[in-house]
From TrEMBL:
Belongs to the TfdA dioxygenase family. The keyword Metal-binding applies. Residues 49-307 form the TauD/TfdA-like domain. One of its GO terms (molecular function) is metal ion binding. This is TauD/TfdA-like domain-containing protein. One of its GO terms (cellular component) is cytoplasm. Its cofactor is Fe(2+). It holds the Pfam family TauD. Keywords: Dioxygenase, Iron, Metal-binding, Oxidoreductase.
Amino acid sequence: MTTTVLSGLSEKVFSFKAVDPPLTEITPPQDRAFSADPEKKSLLSAARQVKHLTPYIGTEIVGVQLSQLTPQQKDDLALLVAERGVVFFRAQDLTLEQQHDFTEHYGIQDRDPNQVDPRHVTILGRGGDIRQYGRTGSGEYHSDHSFEINPPAYTLLRVVRTPEFGGDTIFTSQTALYDKLSPTFQKTFEGLHAVHSSDQYFLNAVNNDVKTFRYPVRNEHPLIRTHPVTNLKSLFYNPSFVIHISELKNQEAIHTLNFLREHLHSADDLSVRWKWEPGSVAFWDNRVVVHRAVPGGYNVEEREGKRTAIYGEKPFYDPKGQSLSEWKETHSL
Ligand SMILES: [Fe+2]
């Protein structure tokens, strides 16, 4: 997609006709992580090695093929993903068909507004300079289509081809971003709502002849959300799609969003950077992490991945949720 800073109204935009109607709210099936063993024994005992990559986010499981997991192991994996934000695997033999089946175990297949095949999105390489990307799509931090009424929960990206270097993805924990706020800011942000918009995503697609199927949407989601399984509170912010805070006046919102972007971009300690190889998989909880694919410096033709995701619940805030620090008093990992 484009590397321009802003994409605006044009003849193409005025003549655009949506093929599909807007999405309406659904209640997804119960999160599979509710069926996990809290110790995740069936999954972890099958691994040759379980490597936590950073203190706050990211675990690599070595010696397991996703194509061979039992239903119990898949459920255990959901809980691990919910707790660690993202779980990585290398050298996977998963076929595209098996990836579709694997995703279906977790719920209803989600559909991105630009998604051509109903079962997966093809992710390609990205050029340009990371500094060019403002609030214009996936060169900047985002959680995938957070602007929908039911943004995705578990999301899997399997990389098929990748350059020898370049095209890494950085994942950052929004659970930890919430935890690192001062108690005063935590209290201030709880109960506020962020406006998530696909306006710019839509304009970029139409102006760059990328197929898109729905009109742009805006949805309000809690700025602090609670995870239905872990009961952890997390920030639910990203600079690609959040354009306003509903309860604030305009200037207050602009400065708050600028603070949040700086809070996110300063979070090296709450992030993991993943280097892809052919057959690598990242499986993340899109409700509680943001990510960015680092663009530029490589031949974009050499990078291709397949992404599948399921609909999450409509984001909610439960004041009885716990911060990560509180949670760690009774949990290890
Ligand atoms: Fe993404």
